[in-house]
Structure formats: structure tokens, C-alpha cells
Design a protein that fits this description.
Length: 603
């Protein structure tokens, strides 16, 4: 949802800034731009299109300098165009700014600025910011004061970085949108996310809402909303740069699908002990006061939440899952006996953060289940549990879904024991199966026939994904992944619901992808037959031991036989691969699907 970056060093900044934008492109790719302070003024290059276009254009420029800001955009106000691309300036080129988020009162500010003679050159909400800073400078304020006075006028959610001609400082702030400082040897960095500068430094400072930072090549001075100096810890991130690069894979998505064994090993490392879980964050009894669990999440994370709900409900815990934006709009009852779990890979999804806030207002205990240690969700919730999947760059979530569900299996064990007084049903076998997931995923990624099978899913009218129990959220996830990157119509259903409506759409042109867990196969088999009777080709994905399904389905994609409570995580890997190979055959923009961005920091 837009990526912003800045660099200030003792050497030249243009190349590192372009590289940071390439690393941030998963946050938006409608347009990209850079402003460099080059000794004679501020030089701006910005273009509609991908960062590669900007990179090609600036490769021939000799305007370089030690200080710059950059932006990659996912449009919210104004269509993608050169004019709407950031950085934006005031009436002159004295001030340049980049922004992520939404300035809600921009109309009112723009009208007032116009009345005072300011002229605007874009449709963006952002452009009011450089004009406000410019006005502050014209009124005799120092650059730092002019920046602070400008942001004091803003309502909404934002991360903003600004530079002022002749000033060796980057000014920045955040309110509801992420912003992190990178501390380097000869330069300092600022970005929406750590991968932007991970190749240069792993020492970071996460900013809090309302922090204002003045960044130079050797210092970072942080003040709070009242201008009082505040200290934020310098942390070292344990992600490798290699994790954040594509390597020999054609796409990040494929790399991240193949990284799942490693991601799952990290997720589970040290967290299973004998026949119980060892969650250092949550020793036995941690949830003694809780009686109800609510999951709030969006998209893929919502499907992981549904999986978590299923795990808890089957063992007697009162659990529900809510689409975060709906929860935020009309929150269900919650009190101090409610645990509200925000499932969010990025930890920055605005809808999820708002839902967590609503839960907090009602007295609920909040827990962030996230991949990003310094994220807003991790910092604002009462508790955090990290999924440890490593950086995920592809917009379509893959390895983080697997790690989210694996983490939820661990958490479910603790919650069920604390809330019911007994372990989960069959817990020893289930934890063993969990521990074996990494090698089972390896088997799938080496032996899969998904590329060949995906050819059955090209150019069809619709694709229906069905499953029961834990395979139902996975069917929803399979459909989301397929539609996201192939742009083909796909819907997920509880297999039993097919006959209550969707069957009207099933024809020989609508492949049905049925996900089985090995439990209660006969009902799924009936649903498969219902589809086949209407002429639909059926692809079944189920444990290799499900010979009945293998015989009934038109195509069978096996996964290693393991505990039925976790086997759907494996089936999901096959679904990811089907979506990937279908999208690849259609030459889709796999890592950056149209209209989508990875981290959705607007509501
Ligand atoms: C789909 C996808 C999105 C995200 C959703 C929530 O592949 O990635 O549906 O799952 O935007 O994002 P997080 O998990 O960061 O809150």
C-alpha cells in the first residue's frame, strides 16, 4: 500500500534508493519516483509504471547526491500517472515529500491552500503536505518546525518523509502506517519495511505513531508529538538478505512456496516438547481467565483464522472468526474473558488493526499472530506470537499461510488445555504430524504434478474449490490464490453447500477442485459425484492413502498421509502450485497481481 524510503549518507544515494524501491515494490507498483538533493537543488524523477522504468530513466542522469527520498505507489487518490507519482513538491521545488496512507482532510486543506495562492499539479491527497511545509518555511519557521507544523494539520493515517532544499536532514513521521529507520555505517535509511534496506543494514529502529524523526547521515533524533525527545531501541533483525531476494526462481511466489519447509522448521523450532507445546510466550495457565476466542483477519490470514477456529471448536473451545473490516464496523460482544487474535502476516493491515482496537475498547485481551516483530499489531496488542516465516515478498501469501496455521495448531494446544482442562483430542499424534510437516512439504514440492494438472484449469468459466472441516478454509484459500494471480473466476465452498446453490453453476467448463483430509471421505465423494454428474472435471487433492477419492476423481494429486487435522496444510501447497502454474501459463504478473498490494494499510 505504497512504499516510502529515504537515504542519507556520506556517499551518493541514487543507486541504493532505486534498489530500496525495487525491494519495496510489493507494496505498490502503479508509479515510482525519487527526489535527490544534489548540491544545486532537489532533482525529481517520477514515472507512471514499475520501478524498472524509473531505474532505466535515472540510469542516464548525472544528478546524484548524498540525500534522497523515494516512493512506489499503490493508487488511492488519483489514477496512476506521472503527475500523481510521488515525490510531490510545493509551488516551487524547495520541498519534496513521499507519503503512504490517506490524508482524510486533504480536500479542506487543499481549498484553504488554494485560497492562499497555492497551485496544485496532482490529484493526490499527499500534495497538500509539501505546500504546508513550504508555507511554514515562508513564514520563517525552521525546516524541522515547518515539518511539524504541517503534520499537526493532518488527519488520517500516514507515513511521510520530506526533504528541504539545502538541509542535510530527512524529516519523517508516522501515524497508523509503518516506518522503520535503518542504521548503517556510512548512511542512515528510512523505509516502510525492513527489506527495503536489508542489503545495507540489519540494525533497525521501529518508530511509534506520532514520532517525528530528523535523520542525518550519522544521527537519528526522535521526538514525540509534543516535541520531547524520545528514545527507541536499536534492534537487530534476524532476516537474511538472501531470504528477501528471488535467487534462481522466476518469481518470489515460487521461491516462497519452495521455502515452506524452511519456514515451517523455523515456525516449529523449539516449540514442541514431548506431548505438549513449549510456547515460551505462553506457559500453561496463560489463558486461565479466557472463555471465548475471536479471530479477526483479512484475506489469506482470515482463512488461517478460520482454520484456527476449526481447531479450537472441535476440542470444545468457543471460537469465532470475523472479517476484520466487518468486525470493526459492528463489533460483536467482547469482554475481559475474550481473547481476540489478530492474524496478520504484515502486522500492519489497517482493517485488522482497527478490529483489534474495537476489541481492546471492549476490554478483550488482544494477541497478534504475525510475521513481523516490530509491526504495529505486535507492538499494540497485549501479546504477540510470531510465525517466523521470514520475509514474504510475493503479493500472494504462501509460506506465511502455512506458518500461520502451524502456529495456530501450537496455540490451539495451549488454549484448549487452558480453557477446557484437557489436551486436544489425539494430541500426541497431531504434534508428531506437525513436526513432520517440513519434510512432507519437501516431498510435495519435489514430486508434485501440479504444473501438468494446472493445464486443466486454463481458460475455463469458473473454478470451484470445495472441502469439509479443515479443508474448507483451505478450499477458500485455494480459490483466493487462484483468482488473485490468474484473474480467473474462482470460488471456495463448504463441500456440503454445493447442492444448496452453487451447483447451478457447475458445468463441463467449471473444474471442481475437491480437497480431502482422509476423514469422512464418503461425503466428499458424494459431492464429487454431484459435480461429475453435471459434467465437471474433478481434481481431488487428498492423502495418498485416499484410494477411493483417487478412483472417483478425474485427476488425483496426492499429499503425504498424515494426521487429518494438519493434512490440509499440505493440500494447500498443491493448490498454491496449481494457481502458480496456471498463472505462469497465462503469463500473468504473478508477484504483483493487478490492483493488489501486499500490505493494505488503508481501510
Ligand atoms: C492474499 C493476501 C491478502 C492478505 C491480506 C491480509 O494472498 O496476501 O489477502 O492475506 O491482505 O494481510 P495481512 O496478513 O498482512 O494482514
Amino acid at each position: 500500500m505504497c512504499g516510502i524510503t529515504a537515504r542519507i549518507g556520506t556517499d551518493e544515494s541514487l543507486e541504493p534508493l532505486v534498489s530500496s524501491l525495487e525491494n519495496l515494490e510489493y507494496r505498490g507498483y502503479d508509479s515510482a519516483g525519487i527526489a535527490i538533493q544534489n548540491g544545486t537543488g532537489i532533482e525529481i524523477n517520477k514515472f507512471e509504471g514499475a520501478v524498472s522504468k524509473l531505474a532505466a530513466e535515472v540510469s542516464t542522469t548525472d544528478h546524484d547526491g548524498p540525500l534522497g527520498i523515494g516512493h512506489t505507489r499503490w493508487s488511492t487518490h488519483g489514477p496512476p500517472s506521472d503527475d500523481n507519482a510521488h515525490p510531490h513538491t510545493g509551488c516551487g521545488d524547495r520541498v519534496a515529500t513521499v507519503h503512504n496512507g490517506i490524508i482524510e482532510n486533504h480536500d479542506e486543506l487543499r481549498t484553504a491552500l488554494r485560497d492562499r495562492g497555492h497551485e496544485f499539479s496532482s490529484d493526490t491527497d499527499t500534495e497538500v503536505v509539501p505546500h504546508l511545509i513550504e508555507e511554514g518555511l515562508a513564514n520563517g519557521r525552521s525546516p524541522g518546525d515547518a515539518f511539524r507544523a504541517a503534520i499537526d494539520r493532518l488527519e488520517g493515517s500516514y507515513a511521510i518523509a520530506a526533504i528541504v532544499e539545502g538541509e542535510p536532514t530527512v524529516y519523517a513521521t508516522r501515524n497508523g502506517s509503518p516506518l522503520v529507520i535503518g542504521i548503517g555505517e556510512t548512511a542512515n535509511y528510512l523505509a516502510s519495511d525492513v527489506p527495503a534496506f536489508l542489503q545495507f543494514t540489519d540494525r533497525v529502529v521501529y518508530l511509534e505513531d506520532d514520532d517525528v524523526v530528523a535523520l542525518t547521515d550519522s544521527t537519528h533524533r526522535i521526538t514525540d508529538a509534543h516535541g520531547t525527545a524520545v528514545s527507541r531501541p536499536v534492534e537487530t533483525v534476524d532476516w537474511d538478505q538472501e531470504d528477501a531476494e528471488k535467487g534462481s526462481y522466476d518469481h518470489y511466489m515460487l521461491k516462497e512456496i519452495h521455502e515452506q519447509p524452511v519456514a515451517l522448521r523455523q515456525t516449529l523450532h523449539g516449540r514442541i516438547g514431548g506431548d505438549d507445546v513449549e510456547l515460551s510466550e505462553f506457559p500453561p495457565g496463560s489463558f486461565g481467565e479466557i472463555s471465548t476466542v475471536q479471530f479477526v483477519a483479512c484475506g489469506t490470514s482470515y482463512h488461517a483464522g478460520r482454520y484456527g477456529e476449526w481447531l479450537l471448536s472441535k476440542d470444545g473451545v468457543d471460537a469465532t472468526t470475523h472479517i476484520a473490516s466487518e468486525y470493526a464496523g459492528s463489533p460483536p460482544p467482547a469482554d475481559e474473558h475474550t481473547l481476540t487474535i489478530g492474524v496478520t502476516q504484515s502486522g500492519e493491515t489497517a482493517d485488522t488493526l482497527e478490529a483489534l482496537e474495537r476489541a481492546r475498547e471492549r476490554g478483550a485481551r488482544t494477541l497478534a499472530l504475525t510475521n513481523v516483530v516490530g509491526s504495529t499489531a505486535a507492538r499494540t496488542c497485549d501479546d504477540a506470537l510470531f510465525i517466523r516465516a521470514g520475509p514474504e515478498i510475493g503479493v500472494a501469501a504462501t509460506k506465511t499461510f502455512s506458518s500461520q496455521v502451524a502456529t495456530l495448531v501450537l496455540l490451539a494446544e495451549r488454549l484448549v488445555r487452558d480453557l477446557t482442562g484437557s489436551p486436544t483430542d489425539d494430541h500426541t499424534a497431531r504434534l508428531d504430524a506437525l513436526a513432520s510437516l517440513p519434510e512432507h512439504v519437501e516431498t510435495i514440492t519435489t514430486e508434485t504434478r501440479a504444473a501438468e494438472v494446472s493445464r486443466r484449469c486454463l481458460g475455463d468459466n469458473g473454478h470451484f474449490f470445495i472441502g469439509r472441516e479443515s479443508a474448507y478454509p483451505v478450499a477458500l484459500e485455494g480459490a483466493l490464490k487462484f483468482k488473485e494471480i490468474t484473474y480467473g473466476h474462482a470460488e471456495g465452498f463448504a463441500a456440503g453447500e454445493l447442492k444448496h446453490g452453487p451447483l447451478a453453476l457447475v458445468t463441463e467448463d467449471t473444474p471442481v477442485i475437491a480437497v480431502g483430509t482422509g476423514r469422512d471421505q464418503s461425503r466428499l465423494q458424494s459431492n464429487i459425484s454431484e459435480s461429475q454428474t453435471r459434467g465437471a472435471p474433478v481434481i481431488a487433492i487428498a492423502p495418498e492413502t485416499a484410494t477411493d477419492l483417487a478412483e472417483t476423481a478425474d485427476v488425483f494429486l496426492p499429499v503425504p498421509a498424515t494426521h487429518p487435522d494438519v493434512v490440509a496444510i499440505l493440500a494447500n501447497v498443491q493448490l498454491q502450485l496449481i494457481a502458480y502454474h496456471a498463472a505462469s501459463a497465462m503469463e500473468r504478473s504473478i508477484d504483483k497481481p493487478r490492483n493488489l498490494a501486499k500490505s493494505v494499510t488503508v481501510e
